Amino acid sequence: MKKISAAALLFSSTAAVADAPNVVTDIAPVYALVAQVMEGVGEPQLLMKQGASPHGYSMRPSEARALQDADLVVWIGEDLTPWLENSVETLAADAVSLELLHAPGTEVLAFRETSVFGTDEDHHDDHDGHDDHDEEHHDDHEDDHHDEEHDDHGHDDHDEHDEHDEHDHDAHDEDKHDNHDDHDEHGHDDHHGHDHDGDDPHAWMDVDNAITWVGVIAASLSDLDPANAATYAANAEKAADALDHLKHDLEHQLEDYKGAHFVVFHDAYQYFEHMTGLKASGALQLSDATPPSAAQLAAVQAEIQEHNITCVFSEPQFSDALVRSVTNGNVNASELDPLGFGLDLGPNLYSDLMKNLANSFESCLK
């Protein structure tokens, strides 16, 4: 009798995992948020090789198969991964597509259009500057987007984002990751470049958005898997509480550095700045997919010299040669990692990523 009971328990546990929806995510921070919501039910799959640039990527055959088998695709959206849009619509035609950047409640910021952002006296309040944008953006999506996310796939709203499809993802450090080869194999030969005239897709670096998203993810999972809806809801509530504490810890840690001047490698940290009160003076590149012009670098160099900026950040996916070229080794060079490159893939990756960002800012600015 004991053996039968044990076998029954094992079968029940296996069945729960087998019955969990097949969920595919685009980047590691999104994977971590989904993993928190799915805890005890199943695990998502990471579509992209960890540490690769999301703006241009060639899926491997195993990754394409995972997309084909997906019941739910959770991704930031085509603004971050334009190459993924067609694949979601074709390979994952029967899956629900959840674009987090356009989910109800997401705070979305507009791209900064120049490589020099100015110093404290030049900055307007980011919250005021984007209120009109955010209200207009969410009014358009609030009434109908939630239903779209949970219908066949919610892909009808891609037409309004065509302006983001003018992306030019010329290889930047492709050899460093070996995942930009054989791009045509999966039909992803349309690397598009950031025009920086629309929404900034790096929205996961505002913890308030992550708090919103765990609820949206739980709702999507519950629609697909009503039997586990209570678990998803409880996990989302637990995750939201932990994220709220994380946000307050980050704000407290960086409170003394709000007036500090620094330059980032590429303009990916606006949401983190918006959340903590930090304000970058400029970026060496507007996008990690497009090399800067000589005029852009000269403008950043002038900003560094004029304001005696002593902190310039590189990123682990890219060579620090660009940083060295504009600083001549006379500043504190530190590293910011927006994607969790090198972190253990799991539900804790998101909080580890955000803590690492705060620690990098603090160590370079103090």
Which key features would you list for this structure?
366 residues, alpha/beta, Rossmann fold, four-stranded parallel beta sheet, two-stranded parallel ribbon, disordered N terminus
Element layout with pairings:
Elements (H helix, E strand, L loop, with lengths): L1 H18 L3 E3 L2 H11 L6 E2 L14 H8 L3 E4 L6 H9 L5 E4 L26 H17 L2 H5 L57 H18 L4 H25 L9 E4 L3 H7 L5 E4 L8 H13 L4 E4 L6 H7 L4 E4 L13 H17 L1
Parallel strand pairs: 1-2, 1-3, 3-4, 5-6, 7-8
In short:
By secondary structure, the chain is an alpha/beta fold. Helix content is 42%, strand content 8%.
Could you characterize what this model shows?
- This protein has 366 residues and is α/β, with parallel strands linked by helices.
- The chain has 2 domains: 193 residues, Rossmann fold, CATH 3.40.50; 119 residues, Rossmann fold.
- It has 12 helices and 8 strands.
- The strands form 3 sheets. A 4-stranded parallel sheet has the order 2-1-3-4, with helices on both faces.
- Helix 2 crosses helix 7 and helix 7 packs antiparallel against helix 8.
- The longest helix is centred in the middle third of the chain and has 25 residues.
- The radius of gyration is 21 Å and the shape is globular.
- It starts with a helix and ends with a helix.
